[in-house]
Amino acid sequence: MAMADPHKHPAAEPTDVILGSMDRMFEQLIERLDGLSNDEYLWEPVAGMWSVRPPLDGSPRVDGAGQRDVDPPPVTTIAWRLWHIAIDCFDDYTRRFNGDTADASAEWTTDADEAIDVLKDKWTRYRSVVASRSSQDLLGESWGPWSQHSTVDMAIHASNELVHHAAEVGLMRDLYRAEHQVDRLVTVVLTVADLDESVRLFTEGFGLELHLDDHEGDELWTSGRHAATSWTDGAFLHFAIYETKDGTTSRGAQVAFAVDDLDSAHRRAVGAGAEVLHEPRAQPWGRSARYSDSDGHVIELTQRE
């Protein structure tokens, strides 16, 4: 078969190929940002995060602007990540191509919709200036230690910045949705005769981290001695064991926990005194074993396939 005439199909500029790939990445990011609320945009699920802060006067500013190589790197909000993509990357690169060596602006918006509009504008400007240059053009003096690198070198770097920060934004959106999901099970409560014995079994035998507490009052459902693990610790499910107030227990209730190694978990449960209802065996979803505590609750351990 005859080869195509290369003169009729000239090789594409490397930067054009990279920009085409970034077009798709950017489109996916914008789609991923659909429906972003200000609450989610500024959400801080852990302490010490970098974000954008409303000042006492002037414009909101981001944390850590200009700080490089922070170890360990801080967790950042969606607001901070969008600033980094739009201003610290796209806008900074565009300005340097035009000879402006000033540091990236630390000013940013606390409004999610405005942030997305600015992001779109900065991407368009960056894309235009890169598309206007030859792939092998040197960056020049305004790029400091990178002055002898080429346009295609910088385009590859910008592509990496876009793809990994866009992925981080997507992960933050997934975590926010899971944390704020409605119409899902959020609490499981067992009532037992001997709280101390139950805590020992569930911690030593089944590996839970339970926190003992005692809510004062005579509220039937929430007061009294109990132990719990909470969704605020990242479990997304509130599991609690309450000591009975009237002698009745939640006998017969069944709970299940996923484990990585069922055989090891089985040995631990037996060693802690759990009554074995059946040994580890195949189930449609993997392998499971079941146990009973002194109150007649059924505890299942499952290792998925």
Descriptive report:
This protein has 305 residues and is of the alpha+beta class. The chain folds into 2 domains: 166 residues, Up-down Bundle (Four Helix Bundle (Hemerythrin (Met), subunit A)); 118 residues, 2,3-Dihydroxybiphenyl 1,2-Dioxygenase, domain 1. It is 37% helix and 18% strand. It has 7 helices and 10 strands. A hairpin with a 5-residue loop joins strand 9 and strand 10. Helix 1 packs parallel to helix 5, helix 3 runs parallel beside helix 4 and helix 3 runs antiparallel to helix 5.
Overall pLDDT level: 90
User: Regarding CATH, which class of the largest domain?
Assistant: Mainly Alpha
Shape: elongated
Q: In what order do the strands lie side by side in the largest sheet?
A: 3-6-5-4
Largest sheet: 4 strands, mixed
Helix content, binned percent: 25-40%
Q: Please provide the count of β strands.
A: 10
Structure summary:
With 305 residues, the chain is α+β, with helices and mostly antiparallel strands.
From the structure above, extract its key features.
2 domains, 2,3-Dihydroxybiphenyl 1,2-Dioxygenase, domain 1, four-stranded mixed beta sheet, Four Helix Bundle (Hemerythrin (Met), subunit A), single chain, alpha+beta, 305 residues
Please outline the helices and strands.
Elements: H1 14-32, H2 38-41, E1 52-53, E2 61-62, H3 78-97, H4 112-131, H5 151-179, E3 187-192, H6 195-205, E4 211-215, E5 224-229, E6 238-243, E7 254-258, H7 262-271, E8 275-283, E9 286-292, E10 298-304
Parallel strand pairs: 3-6, 7-10
Antiparallel strand pairs: 1-2, 4-5, 5-6, 8-9, 9-10
Helix pairs in contact: 1-4, 1-5, 3-4, 3-5
